Amino acid sequence: MKDAVDRLTPLGLMVLALLHEGDMHPYEMIRLLRMRREDRLVSVTHGTVYHTVARLEREGLVAEVGVDREGNRPERTTYSVTDAGARAVREWVRRELPRVDRPAEFRVALAEAHNLDRSEVLELLGARRTALAAARIALESGHRSARGKGVPDQYLLEVDRDEAMVAADLTWLDGLLARLAEPDFAWGPEPEPSERYLAQRKAARL
What we know:
Blueprint: H1 2-7, H2 10-21, H3 26-35, H4 46-58, E1 62-68, E2 76-81, H5 83-96, H6 103-111, H7 118-148, H8 157-180, H9 195-205
Antiparallel strand pairs: 1-2
Pfam families: PadR
Protein name: PadR family transcriptional regulator
Domain Transcription regulator PadR N-terminal: 15-90
């Protein structure tokens, strides 16, 4: 399982998460990802999605469950997530949520954090906060040292920005942790599919 998780790309993770919602073919996956604007997080093209699905099938994370053909349209193979694929989603999110050195992966992990229990997400994001606080201290120390040595500000612009970004991330994370700790903050799968979700699935199949 570890090897499969290590080889899992952000797009692969999002494909597995989609299939957790129900069986679908790659064309529907592409349309859903675009409708939900998930292409903000990963590159979504026909080539990358079909290639990713094929790789996930070789890894045993998805399985073919049927082939549909409507009218003059080409055949569409439908896939389902396997138990190994569902576990891989959770393991990947667990690995990426606390890390501060992989921002692209963190965005995807955060988008799929609802696949874990609330208490576990709080713990993982708490670990991330600890790492961010340490990074902020190191940046501030390095910035002060550079200024103390007379390094001109023009050479410290990137450091200055990095320091500001980490500070902003900490502020945002503190707010999120407080919200997640509130029992009224909805978490976990919805008991029934929403009308919006059903409408998206219907539109994506067309």
